Amino acid sequence: MADVINSLSDRLLFGIPKKGRLHEHCLSLLSGADINFHRHNRLDIALVQNLPIALVFLPAADIPKYVADGNVDLGITGQDMILESQVGDRIEQLLELGFGKCKLEVQVPVRSNIKNVEDLVGKRIVTSFVVLAGVYFEELDKKYLSDDQKKEGKKTKIEYVSGSVEAACALGLADGIVDLVESGETMRAAGLQSIAVVCSSQAILFRNKNPSNPSLVSKLTSRIRGVVAAQKYVLLNYNIQRHSLSEATKITPGRQAPTISPLEKDGWVEVQSMVCKNNVAEIMDQLEEIGAKDILIFNINNCRV
Question: Taking a C-beta distance cutoff of 8 angstroms, is the pair 301, 32 a contact?
Fold first, then answer.
């Protein structure tokens, strides 16, 4: 380990979630950006082989503080972790990554008499997001507690737990919880329902405001932006008669403009255009309706846009 630490002085330090819901997505993102490394078992530092970078694998909740304090130059974590760490003024958000999407929600037992957040004011909340929950319920306390209750010091009680938050109500520890929701399956299995959204979140790439190597940060950001864009788009290739070209390019305008090439067959052209992956089936249907032929889809592994 000492040899690894000594080798980091001339390397950009990049904080990556060591486990959890973001970890595998991050590894795929690094691979797509051609960031090659080998991580030894039980070692949380990995040297990148083709760039002067060291990956530091950290708990996702700790990465905002490490980046803000300058211990690492840039990192990936959830926006919820940034907000909870209260370091937004000391970091610079570079790129939303499109994965790890979730919502921080207020949840209560389905069978309880609590139907909205106003009913939770002055009661007990359990969460691992005590800062965000505290700010949220502080505003509700101001709005819904009476003057007499405020004078008595009554307020919504926020308590911290590190895991199994969804069990708190069933165990009698809380009247409601504040927790992350992705698909909602865990919430429903625990007999809970959502009554309010505190904030939405997804994974982001962010940096310290004074990284050790700004040009390398810029290069990494460009590579990762290309991977993220490639996940959203496909390359659509088709042939169309020239008299229908204007109508076709309205369907496939591309990000800048489509590429158009004449074919050997008189009156026909080939068109290439980037289109949103989510809309590709509908786009192909529209092209076929106006006479397009040989409509092909190609996946994009990386790009610069």
Answer: yes
